[in-house]
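Please predict the structure of the following assembly.
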Amino acid sequence: MHNFDFAKPTTIADAAKALAADGAQALSGGQTLIPTMKQRLAAPGVLVSLTGIAEMQGVCIGDGGLHIGAATPHAVVAKEAKAHYPALADLAGGIGDPAVRSRGTIGGSVANNDPAACYPSAVLASGATVVTNKRKIAADDYFQGLFTTALEEGEFITEVVFPIPQRAAYVKFNQPASRFALTGVFVAKFADGVRVAVTGAGNDGVFRWTEAEAALSANFSAAVISGLTVDPSGMNTDLHGSAAYRANLVKVLTGRAVTAAG
Amino acid sequence: MTKVFMTVNGKAVSGEVEGRTLLSSFLREGLGMTGTHVGCDTSQCGACVVHVDGKPVKSCTVFAADVAGASVKTIEGMANADGSLNVLQQAFQDHHGLQCGFCTPGMVMSSAALLAENPKPSEAEVRHYLDGNICRCTGYHNIVKAVMAASGQDVSALAAE
């Protein structure tokens, strides 16, 4: 990989200053960025590690629900979110493998917005708020397609705030080699309705399945899903599964997630 | 180049690194500690797993500069003080948990991390935890058996291959 200057600020303000430099790139756990740099698909001049910033670490209940610092590793979310938001903790505990979960962070995953990553589905299904060093962004405005988000140059996520649903579950169909979601569905039932977000399947990244949301808001039961159809035209096709296969997975996994949510 | 300081297997160490120097390279080339193996260099195989502040990480996917100041434990730090194999290492030997041995450092480090947080794992929990460690000899049955035995559980009923 190409060499770079390395910086590790300890405050959000210092990180913002460092990231204002030309060619600067934020580094969180590095579980995606470092392999990407090894392939020379990214070659930042300055890499700014966000893992040394205490105010971006940890899980706590606060205004608006569960606050998770952007630099909190998946393993910590799996443990510390369990009592407050078990479906989110389960999702975090199922990402990659234990060593990846020691390093990879929620902020890194949400900033990267990989179309097969787990976290974007939880953020979108929960109607979470993505907090950056500059502003607060609603999940519905944040995700903008494959690896594309509302983040601007020099902007980075500092925390994600999750409203806590009455019931929720995440069910993922693993791609066993990459450990990403071939398809994953997060279902969250709130007092005012149900939200369903799908990762791994859509050819434009994470999306809400609004038809299922309407049906489940009227009747929160896996049976109502069997009457719906998913249009395969918006789904990914690759060597692991066709668009029709993924469309079917969306339906099957949504039903399973509703059952798991209880 | 910048100078980094860290603790490796209880000893204070330091060395000059570039920004791009991986922890695995710092250990192997900087400190000459070649027990940590690099198998795939793409964070798939787990041969390079070491502990950073008690947590298992893939050292090929962490920059040395990013873990400056940390306490690192490698396979070289696993033996007992008198140089004899520790319980987990001895169990790998007793139960033929290694064939070519290339994946073994990572398998031992991941297994040690598992036993630290879950001292009596079930067979399914061992298999699940070792998801990120690949054995190119496919010797998984005996690896799982060794980890179960090291946790003090009866392994006579487990599959032996």
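Chain B touches chain A at residues 2, 18-20, 22, 41-44, 46, 49, 52, 55-58, 61-63, 65-66, 68, 110, 113-114, 129, 131-133 (CB under 8 Å). DSSP finds five helices and five strands in chain B.
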